[in-house]
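Tokens in:
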């Protein structure tokens, strides 16, 4: 007689997990907020391959490169790194979330980034060959059909394995040169691609920000930054060679479209726009936290205000010299300074980079932050200390700008004397135009100083405004040109600059729906959305 189990007795049952095809949509289309992130993922994989090829002496450092070839219908990203051997290429390239990379020493390690391009092409191809072999492997994903079949309305019909089997083909061809080694991503039949895929200039701007490329030759502080990186090499995660170090890694990236070719560099220059003027970087600061697990360089300027160039503004976080997130990550750190929520706006006052030890924290799957572990919590505390210091420095710059009235008064006096000299010498159109431009520039400086000035200082600055207006008016009259010059234009520009800073702060602090309402109100009041 079979015994009946007592009520409440647990009976083991075998679990039978089922992964529907919709999960692939989550790992591709749903993983990255911006489709251009796919470009970064492919550059990241190429970079890993090149570093390994250099380590194994397959590729010389001077020859390592990534080529991005563009056309209206196709994007090709090719590197001369390791490539993948024919015996394992198909298996590696058709596996999802099963990367064999070491997360401590390589930029990409989850094995899902290479599928990111499915989002905006008809066919996604991987073509590769390893050194010493004559066999080339091609694996093709039917991206168009995958997008349809992994959508919410179809994703439950197939298991993940069935979905991939239906939409992947693989082939190999013999007869290739044994000495060649490469990996190539081909996004064919572009469908609503990110705008960077169609414009070489935009592609260069994007790659220059996110990829591990070098600095411009004319960036005066490049050597100092590289020297700092050399002195702060992070320990390798390799257990075989505990003394091995990793440098501030760089690789050459070239963008080609037709006959045009661009050697991509980081966008930093010796000056950058603050308001309407280019403001010089007079020095850089190197910062080391107590943990010594990251370091930073910060561009220093003497003028208050945010950088206008999106390519350089704000502190950027980099691991293996590849950018993590955009500018939002450090914006949050500035906003988190205890007792100083207003510091959030100061991230855009600065330009610079933060290089992180890859063995210390782990980038999350979207690469817009780090895994929430104890090390990241510790690093955030150190970043908050840096942000607090930079926020106080920004206030100091503003106060010094208020105290610079003596300099502004001296500059105004010099322009007045120059105006008299030009008037005495007779009409010279070129000199009058040059004088007018100098007056405009100084008027903007006075306008910026007015933002932070007290009542007494404001009175002195208004006096300078009037003197500059007189210089310009006399100069224009000397040309015999009838031109209405209104002091209100200068004040209006100063007001617009203030509004721009406020809107930048709102953008940083408010949720998107609230910011949209604020922007709409500002646009209606100003009659313009140029802020």
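Residues out:
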């Amino acid at each position: 007689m079979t015994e009946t189990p007592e009520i409440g007795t647990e009976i083991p049952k075998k679990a039978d997990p089922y992964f529907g095809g919709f999960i692939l949509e989550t790992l591709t289309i749903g993983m990255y907020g911006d489709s251009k992130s796919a470009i970064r993922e492919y550059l990241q994989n190429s970079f890993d391959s090149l570093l390994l090829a250099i380590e194994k002496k397959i590729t010389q450092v001077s020859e390592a490169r990534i080529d991005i070839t563009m056309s209206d219908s196709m994007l090709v990203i090719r590197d001369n790194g390791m490539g993948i051997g024919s015996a394992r290429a198909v298996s590696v390239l058709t596996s999802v979330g099963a990367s064999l990379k070491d997360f401590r020493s390589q930029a990409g390690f989850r094995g899902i980034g290479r599928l990111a391009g499915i989002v905006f092409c008809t066919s996604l191809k991987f073509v590769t060959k390893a050194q010493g072999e004559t066999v080339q492997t091609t694996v093709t994903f039917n991206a168009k059909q995958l997008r349809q079949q992994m959508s919410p309305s179809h994703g439950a019909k197939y298991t993940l394995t069935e979905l991939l089997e239906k939409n992947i083909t693989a082939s190999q061809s013999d007869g290739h040169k044994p000495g060649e080694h490469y990996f190539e991503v081909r996004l064919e039949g572009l469908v609503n691609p990110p705008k960077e895929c169609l414009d070489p200039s935009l592609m260069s701007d994007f790659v220059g920000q996110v990829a591990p490329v070098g600095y411009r030759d004319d960036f005066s502080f490049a050597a100092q930054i590289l020297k700092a990186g050399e002195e702060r090499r992070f320990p390798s995660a390799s257990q075989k060679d505990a003394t091995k170090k990793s440098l501030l890694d760089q690789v050459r990236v070239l963008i080609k479209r037709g006959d045009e070719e661009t050697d991509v560099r980081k966008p930093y220059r010796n000056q950058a726009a603050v308001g309407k003027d280019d403001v010089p970087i007079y020095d850089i600061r190197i910062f080391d936290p107590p943990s010594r697990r990251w370091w930073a360089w910060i561009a220093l300027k003497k003028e208050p205000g945010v950088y206008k160039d999106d390519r350089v503004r704000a502190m950027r976080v980099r691991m293996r010299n590849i950018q993590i997130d955009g500018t939002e990550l450090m914006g949050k750190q500035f906003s988190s300074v205890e007792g100083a929520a207003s510091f959030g706006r100061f991230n855009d006052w600065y330009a610079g980079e933060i290089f992180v030890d890859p063995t210390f924290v782990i980038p999350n799957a979207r690469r817009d932050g780090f895994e929430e572990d104890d090390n990241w919590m510790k690093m955030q505390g150190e970043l908050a200390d840096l942000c607090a210091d930079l926020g106080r420095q920004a206030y100091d710059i503003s106060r010094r700008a208020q105290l610079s009235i003596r300099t502004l008064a001296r500059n105004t006096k010099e322009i007045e004397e120059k105006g008299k000299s030009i008037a005495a010498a007779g009409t010279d159109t070129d000199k009058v135009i040059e004088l007018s431009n100098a007056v405009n520039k100084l008027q903007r400086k006075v306008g910026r100083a007015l933002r932070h000035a007290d009542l007494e200082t404001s009175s002195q600055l208004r006096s300078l405004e009037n003197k500059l207006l007189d210089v310009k008016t006399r100069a224009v009259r000397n040309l015999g040109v009838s031109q209405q010059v209104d002091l209100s234009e200068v004040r209006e520009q100063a007001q617009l600059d203030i509004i721009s800073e406020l809107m930048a702060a709102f953008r940083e602090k408010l949720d998107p729906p609230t910011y949209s309402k604020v922007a709409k109100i500002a646009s209606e009041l100003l009659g313009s959305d140029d802020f």
